[in-house]
Amino acid sequence: MSTLEIKDLHVSIETDQGTKDILKGVSLTINSGEIHAIMGPNGSGKSTLASTIAGHPRYEVTKGEILLDGEDVLEMGPDERAQAGLFLAMQYPVEVPGVTMTNFLRTAKTAIDGEAPKLRTWTKEVKNAMEKLRIDADFANRNVNEGFSGGEKKRVEILQLELFKPKFAILDETDSGLDIDALRVVSEGVNRAHEENGMGTLLITHYTRILNYIKPSFVHVFVDGKVAEQGGPELADELEANGYDRFLTPAAAAV
Question: Whole-model pTM?
Fold first, then answer.
């Protein structure tokens, strides 16, 4: 059993207009095997939380802690966080010209585990994972994300998730830009990783449609850099029906 703890997290960034506070005291605890959905309007701090957990240098933690099994994540570099068992599926996966998928996946797996996977079993594992995600075998020889469609990039993110076997996955709007078929395939990949590895999942989304396939244990509503409300799956249904208006009124903002 592993635990990811976020305690009273405050995060800011530097802008042309000066320092801007984004997260204003976020506290969450995620255990192995749990799926937590974070929902909220644009600009509420959801993606900032994901990037901060992963170690993006733009975001400055001014107060609070992130602990992984009691270890201080904020003292780790991004690569050390990956080695410790954290994985971020990016909202906008980047292209990596000159690096093939085959080389990237094996190099990353070696860096995370501290030793190279056995080639025969690794090749079979990659092939099987690609087939389940309906990724054409030719993609193994293509450069990472270069010329890929949005849906193909998202499938490659989940391919990494299945192969790297993290303790905790942070999925930053993995459902954005996916048609219904791609959404189903991607969700099946997340569910496989969850069931096979017992990982904890932090799923960031605007919409409930992905929650029809990936069933959350808990739902947290982000508003203005804070958790405004939390509950079970029924909270997502309420948000789908009524939106975020009740959290955005002056009275609610003052609470």
Answer: 0.91
